[in-house]
Amino acid sequence: MQSDIWLLVISAMSIGFIHTLMGPDHYLPFIMLSRARNWSFARTMAVTVACGIGHVLSSIFIGLIGIAAGIAISKIEGLEGMRGDIASYVLFAFGLAYMAWGIKRGLQGKTIHSHPHIHDDGAMHTHEHTHKSAGEPEHGLPGQGKSQAFWWLFIIFVLGPCEPLIPVLMYPAAKVGTSGVILVASVFSLVTVLTMSVVVALAYFGLKQIRFAFFERFAHALGGLVIALSGAAIIFLGL
Question: Is the pLDDT at 168 greater than 80, yes or no?
Answer without folding.
Answer: no
